[in-house]
Amino acid sequence: MKLYKKEGNILQIISFPAENAEKGDYLLVEDQDAGKALIAQIIDVQFAAVPGVLEELLRTFPDGGEPLQGEDIDPMEIAPHITYIQDASLLICKIRATLENEMLSPSSSWLPSRSQSTIKKLSIPMLMKLAKNDGKLPIMLGGTKDSALLTIDASAIDGTLNIITGKKGCGKSHLSKLLMVNLVGYKATVVIFDLNGEYSSLGLANDGKRNIYYDKIHTLVPSQNFKVALEQLPLNTVMGILVNALHLPGTSAREFRRLWKMLKEKGKLNMQELGEAIRDLNCNQHVRDALASRFHSFANSGFFTDCPGEATLLDDSILKSKDIGGAIVINLKNTSNIDRQIVVEYVLGKLVDSLSNWKLKAVFLFAEEAHLYLRETYWDDIVTRMRHYGIFTTFITNQPDTIQETIYRQADNIFLFNFTNEHDLDVVSRAARVDAETVRSIARDLPPHHCLTLGKVVSDFPIVARVRALDIKTLGETRLFFNTN
Amino acid sequence: MKPDYQETLIAAVDTSTIKIGETSTGIIVAIRGATTWKQNGSYKYTRLGPFIFHITEENKNQLYNTLEHAYFSTTYGSSHQAAPNVMQMPTRLASLLERWLQTMLAKTINHGVLLFDGSLTSGTIDTPVQLLKEILSYARRNKSTVLAFSKATTLRANGILITEQLPNHDPPYLIETTGLHSKLPLILLGDVYVARLNKANFAFRLDIDKETPIEQRMAAIQKLLGNDIYTQSYPETLRLSHILCTFTANEVIAMKHFITRKHGIQIIHRPDMHKLLFGPFSKGEIYS
Q: Considering only CB atoms, which chain A residues are within 8 Å of B248?
């Protein structure tokens, strides 16, 4: 490989076929005289502009148009050398860092010698070693193209905002499961808003037998094994549900607050008493109607119960996970849109409550297709206020434009799977921790199950890896009409 | 003239040479030859080379004589002539390969039309009379006709180039020239015509073996018209031969790569004195 050009933080390097350089690979451009080296990543591979190639291609077509057939007698065996030159490629590389005295700096302001610099591939393990990315809580994410392992550190997910995105069927859920079980393995508490009911099997191996996580997976199905009694609910949480999920107007909300306090004082805080109190409420007709309709939503959700024995306390699951780690899977598969919002409001309110009371140290929240159940104002709330409480969110989506731009700008880590749609790539490229060219160029060509990892977990060195397989029973596969099995 | 569509093998030969670079003792050149033929409606080719030679003052005579002897099992007297300049050697070696390829075609093709690049003028250092006579005689023996097309000519009539005196007549046509005399030692082994094969406003000097009967000459031209493409009044088979043997820039780079890698020869980059002295006014550079 030979250094050809440097423009800004883009290097152009001439490479020959035997050198087998591909998009995503890292190169070390070392200038021994300067005592420095540039670390650059290949973001595009083009044909080198070798003079005469066009003539070479054109001359194989006579005027008739059919390709010429013939024999080349080449006793000196020059042809392989011609092919070698013709197939030379131009590597477009993005400078990621400068290495000087074994220290990395983000500078790309110096110019290595074009004639004297040596260029060699930099393996991912070596790159991670140089970046001092060797924490004590490793999560083996998968394998890189050159068969090296890509290991991230769980602490790089701690306190961060993460996004897992890519088009359908490329392995997003698989990666989120991998991250979850590893976090659980490190005794973390994980909460999952499971939209398709595919995380309930985290405790089962492929063959259906229990795995080591079995006892740490708590699946809660709203209105089945996950119900709450009104008396267990803090008023703030109920108000959150009414105002945010059920859009209760301010005047009615004030009336409800008064009603709630009155019932609580009387020790009659249950669904039946609440229904009767609303019915008998002596107030404006519109306010009473508004409260009655919200009460019916409560009642119809099946999520609220008057029987304390039926009520599953989220606190119990949180308590179980607190010391040994665990995943609380909120299965929203068969839950209607309104009920889903009620459940989510309840869970988030409860988590904030537990965290603010230090019942929990921190929680890793995995939210799949969050736009389907998260109100708009919550996005900023999650990345700012809730983060300070200790809710560290990972958004998982195949529609990147459903996540607000502010989220991308603040995301610490992005796990990007294949996207071919320009619009989707544009959205993701707004992330602050990566340049748009890298996202557009590399993500477009990612094969299935390969993920471009960006951000803190890889010390801001974008790395492509094939996500490793998990011995976990697969649920959530698309049901097919023409399935022959 | 009218095209004759009777299937006839049209074959052509051309060679090419290029200077790859200079060494401290001489020059490195590459030579390549190509034969092209049209058969059953499609073009085919055989390409020989590139052959790379390191030519020095010391080896130039030995190199030429060895190759001539290897190709023709004889020497045609060129070895007795004054030793050529090293710089002329590439052309001489290419001519040697071209004559050998022409001999092979003449010996192996029956009832065909053989297209040569250039004229049928002999007696030059590259084209000994005896050698060209032998090639033409092989072709005649195999009932083939040799048509030699020159891309450029210096022949004039009444002071005007013969290819620029075209009659007001619909092509294709041939114009016969008469009264041409060559100066010794040059000998014309062909009769010279001006050929305009289609409406494109180009005409070429065409030499046809003197000893070929007139009827056979006309039949060969008509078969060429019926069997080959001639978009710019020039036969496609001959054009392809030329294109296939020409060296492209990437091939030159590849050959330099080969020389350095395989033989460890260092090519010297001498400064271009024209560019050095005249800058943008050096020849070959056009600035608007």
A: 51-53, 55-56, 59
